[in-house]
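Thread: quick sanity check before group meeting

JM: Hey all, I'm pulling together slides for Thursday and realized we never actually wrote out the predicted structure for the chain we discussed last week. Dropping the sequence here so it's in one place. If anyone has concerns about the input, flag it before I start.
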Amino acid sequence: MLEEIESFVGNLSRVLRASANTVKSYRGDLHDFRAFLLERGAALNPERTEVCVAAIDGDHIRGYLTNLMKRSTRATAQRHLASIKSFFRYREVTAGDPNPSRGLRSPRREKHLPSILRENEVTELIGDAPEQNDRAGFRDRAMAEALYSSGLRISELVALNWGDLDLEMGTLRVRHGKGNKERIVPIGEPAIEALQAWRKSMPLDRNAGGAIFTNLRGGRITTRSVEIIVGRLLARSGVQNRITPHGLRHSFATHLLDHGADLRSIQEMLGHASLTTTQRYTHVSVNRLKEVYSRAHPRA
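JM (edit): ok, ran it. Output follows.
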């Protein structure tokens, strides 16, 4: 089996031009599958020294996936099955052998509801206006306001330029996804005020154009720096709910839904290609309604 795995990943690299990381991932998944079969003494050759690929059947693969889900996530099991299916499709084409993975379905992924802040927690996170000489404070506050006010992805936030902000219309032009697609999203007055305060605190040679959010040396800020800053704001605020910058995007969508916004409008503002992706926020809202009901109703 080792030789056949190397033949397969070699084809991935040479013919399909797969990246080094993809080749490494496929090789690792198939080696793990082989190790499982060897450990179980399954599908071995007559000398019982190596796995015989032609002897592998659907039950062997199902047994492997069952074992894998006991020690890993469903997402990992999905990836491993995809590697196995690709391997056997390659053998089916090149050697004409039957494909034992045909018809096997991937395990369904776990559904995780997004972590969000309550409205009062967002206020605590953003905090009071910073001191006049606190440039980092102005920037960090503007950053948190923009993330929550417009539901931006972290990559969209760091890509913003001052030319993307339309003060008259109260909108941001956001670039997202493959091909740098653009969408226009509203931005609230508190966020605009925070952005203007941050701009005034910047040196004159930096506030005329270019990146909205920079480090204190003037370079465009990185996504990692935004994550650190939001973590720092959380620690300072005392909010117990641990969220990432993406959690502010989730909070944006959930709070809009709580206050009567329709799903199609939220979908457009978030830049979701499918309404199905947006619909998960309905589950968050229902869960919160149930919490309120349980606390408030005398016979809940």
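AS: nice. The longest helix spans residues 275-296. Residues 2-94 form one domain.
JM: adding both to the slides.
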